[in-house]
Structures are given as structure tokens and as C-alpha cells.
Amino acid sequence: MTASASGTFLTRRADLAVWACVFILTSGTAGQVGVVWDEPFFWDKEDQIGAWFRSVVGSAEQRRAALSAEGLKRSWPFCIGTPHENPPVWAILGETGSALTAPLLDELHARRLASTALFSGVAAGLFVVARNAWGTIPAFAALAAWVLHPRVFTHGRIGAIDMTMTAFWFFAACAFRRACEGPRHTWAFGPLLGLAIMSKFTALVSGPANAFWALVYRRPRAWKVLAWSILLAPAVMLAVHPGWWPNPWEGISKAIDVHRHRHETQMVPTYYWGAVWPHALPWHNTLVLTFCCTPPAWVILASIGLIGFMAGKGRDPVMGWAVVNWTAMMIIRALPIAPGHDGIRQFLPTFPFLALMAAFGIATLQRLGTRLVSSDFGKTCAVYPTVLLAAATAVSVWDSREAPLSYYSELIGGLRGAQRLGLESTYWWECVTPRFLAEMNRVLPAGAVVGLSSHGNIQEVFERYQKWGKLRPDVTMLALDRYYSPARDSFRGRPPTHFLILNREGMLFRRDWPINQRFRRLLNGPAFAVVERQGVSLLALVEARE
């Protein structure tokens, strides 16, 4: 083995080790994050896909039924209207991971396996990109800025859509840049772009964003990459959505129409800047939420990176590529038709590129140290701040472990500071941890009826807990719309004996549900069980009587 080959082999082993370490960490802690509002709905769709695949490999009669137009339509309800507006790649991967590991893992860990694997893949990719561009210390900074982010780390442990789209956007962007800078893999961008788009249509922006980067940085090979993508991306999009097979044009037209009118059919109120917004947020929401929801270390380093990039007149192509991709998603989320709910979730694809911007901040410090003192000083001067900042951020990850999607930066005073700024305290029910469920089992009387402060899928979340033996079966859990009529301001059927109230201001301040006034009063009173952070009640189990 030559020295070059030996070096490549060792480098690849190091990259694999990064993936493995992050995967072990992420999958090992996935069970500590409560099931979120959307997951049971997503998992039901994954089950439909699994049943379809089993029919395809079953008897000839089952196969004919599965591959018929009616069978495809029934088993692949994607891109057909709210709440089935999203494409299916996330569901295919989720079902694959679950099916492969069902004999080894419990359902919760198996359902979340695809997200944890993709999150780890992004971590390894960031390490590789930053190391090749700027060196080992910036590579570890990029890795830390991705993994040691309480909210991003949590999204990597939830079986939902956004981590899948984030990962494939990042992988596609990496493939594009690599193909533009070398003679190989010209075709790879197209399939990855197709997978990103068929995870969530927001990823359509990735193509123009990377084309713009190639134009600015004068990458003549880009036209070949884009030509291949024009051929391969649509082919992959069609291949992964069997529901489109009978009539591709009709399916694509329907998907376009659904997303043109989505902002009219799905309105999720969000509390932002002290007011409840019915759908979209003010244009500055992406900048504000990035600053407020990201640990100070990574905001500061990314700012240093941007300053260094501008001081260098934008000459670094890798940093320019990161900035363009980051900016593209930030702009899309700022549009007046973009949904504004769920914190950073809707613009999660910006965070791999933010991690690279933080890594470039470390590289900027190294260059400054080299220029002012010496080459040796420049190489080592960034080690200590990287280690210290990563350690401080690890403390934040640990402190927020029971309610990680309620993490707010220490620069604004944490969760209390966020409340003063009028930002939403929590939103997705991930704070229903194993510890909280155990406390519910302990304090609830036999036959208790618990009314939830959210509607719809949330009842299925607690039914899953009962199925897994984490919540007592004699306890009845009811979603808000199952036990309460807002028009009459009265209960339906047997009234709840207790309420479980999530401090999601976007919902609790809705005036069209009069019961919210009662929820707000009870939330601030005595509770049988509570999830609290920095003195703020995020989730409270209370008696229904006032």
C-alpha cells in the first residue's frame, strides 16, 4: 500500500469513526425524547408503505392489487392535499429502518433509526468538508456546532420529515460542489437532489442556490452537473413515489397545486415577538430565531467566520458555498407564505451550513494568529477556544435534556429571556419524558380522564405510550377536540378529571377556544406533575376543578 493510499484509508476510517460515534450517541439517547405531535401520523403512513411492499413481494394476486392504479393510490397518499402534502422519501426510509431493526429494537428507537443515521451522516460530512477545506481543528468545530446544538440534536432523534430533507439537501449540495471541482461524480447531484425534493418540496431551492454559487465562483463544470440533474432528479422523484406511476403528470400537477394553496388550508398559529401570528411570521424571524435558539458559541464563531469571509472579499469558495445555501433557506422561510410554526424546524437545513460558518470562524482565528504571531501559534491558538466553547455548549445540551426544544440562548437570558421577548416556550410535546410519564402513573387516580390541551394527533401519542406500557391503561387520554366544543364552550361526554397543559402560547392565546383562558390560569397554579425549566412551567398535569 502506497503512502497516499494508506493516508486515504486512514482518513476514511476516521470519517467512519465520526459517523459511528455520533450514531451511537444519537440512537442511544433517542428514547429520552418524548414522542412529538406529528410522529404517530407519520408512522401510520410508514406502515401503509410497509404493507404495500409486503404485498408486492407476496402472491401474484397481492402483487397485481398492489400495483394497480387503485392500490398505488391507496398505499401512497402523498402530495394529495393537507395533511398529506409532503412527498414520501422520509416515510420509505423510516419504514426501512423500522422493518430492519424491529427484532432488535423497541418501536420508538426503530422508528427513529433513519433520522439518527442521517443526522450522523451530516455530522461526518461536515467533518470531512471542514477538514479538507480548513484543517482538523475547524473540522471538530463544525462537528461540535452540529451535534452540540440542543434543538438540532433533538431533531436528529425524532422520526419526522425535516431531518431527512436537511440531510439530503446537505448531501446534494456537497455532491454539487465536489462535481464542480473535479472530473468525477458529475451525475451524483441529480439523484440526491431528487431525494431531497421528495423528502420535502422546500429542497427545490437547493438547485438554484448551488447554481448561483457556481456562477459567482466561476465553476465551468457546473453546466454538466446541472444537465445530469435535469435528467436524473425527475427520474428519482418519480421512482420513489409509486403513487405517481399511473399518471405522473397528474400527480406532479396536483402536488404543485397543493403547495400553491397550502398557506390557505393549513394555518398553525405561532407566538412570536409578543403576538400570535396565524401562519407566516415577520421577515426577520429566521435571523431572530437563529440567534435566540442557537448556543452562543456557534453564533459568535459563525459571526467571526462571516467577518473573516467579508474581509477576504469572499474568496473562499467553500465558505461562499455554505453562505449561499444558508441564505437561500433563510430567505425562503422569510417569505409571507412560508409557515412559521415549530421554532427552527421549518428552516432546519440552514444549520449544517451554519456549522461550517462556525468552522470558518475557527479557521479565521487560526489565520489571524499566524499573521500576528507565528505559524505554530496560528495552528494551536484555536484549539483552546474550540474545546472551551464545545464544553460550555455540552453543558447547555445536558441542562436542556428534558425539554430540548425549549432551549434558548444564554445571550438572551435563556427561556426566561425568550418569554420576555415574546417567543414561544414550547410546541411539540417532546418534554413528555419517561420521568414525567412515571410521575403521571404515580399521581393519577384509577380511571382518571385526562384532557389534553392540544387537538388531533396528540391523543395517538399517549395511546402509543399505553401500548408500550409506559402509561397506565386505565387512564383515558383525550385530545382537545374530542372532549370540548369551542362553539358551545362546553364538554362533550364525560368531562375530564384532569388536564395536561402544554405551555404553547400560540395555542393558549387563541381566542376562538374559550377554554384556553382556563388552561392559562391552571398552568400557573398547583400541579400534580410538572416539567419546568428556569422557573417556567412547560407542561403541567393539573386537576380539572379550579
Describe what you observe in this structure:
With 546 residues, this protein is an alpha/beta fold. It folds into two domains: 3-254 and 278-356, no CATH class; 434-543, no CATH class. The protein is 60% helix and 6% strand. The chain has helices at 3-28, 39-56, 60-67, 69-75, 89-101, 107-111, 113-134, 136-147, 150-155, 162-180, 189-197, 206-216, 222-239, 248-260, 262-265, 285-293, 296-311, 317-334, 350-372, 375-380, 383-399, 414-421, 434-443, 458-467, 480-483, 505-508, 515-523, and strands at 270-272, 275-277, 449-452, 476-478, 484-485, 490-491, 498-502, 529-533, 536-543. Helix 10 (162-180) packs antiparallel against helix 11. The chain is globular. The model is unreliable at 1-7 (pLDDT under 50).
Features:
globular, 546 residues, disordered N terminus, alpha/beta, 6% strand
What order do the helices and strands come in, and which of them pair?
Blueprint: H1 3-28, H2 39-56, H3 60-67, H4 69-75, H5 89-101, H6 107-111, H7 113-134, H8 136-147, H9 150-155, H10 162-180, H11 189-197, H12 206-216, H13 222-239, H14 248-260, H15 262-265, E1 270-272, E2 275-277, H16 285-293, H17 296-311, H18 317-334, H19 350-372, H20 375-380, H21 383-399, H22 414-421, H23 434-443, E3 449-452, H24 458-467, E4 476-478, H25 480-483, E5 484-485, E6 490-491, E7 498-502, H26 505-508, H27 515-523, E8 529-533, E9 536-543
Parallel strand pairs: 3-4, 3-7
Antiparallel strand pairs: 1-2, 5-6, 7-9, 8-9
Helix pairs in contact: 1-7, 2-3, 2-5, 7-8, 7-10, 7-19, 8-19, 10-11, 10-12, 11-13, 12-18, 17-19, 18-19
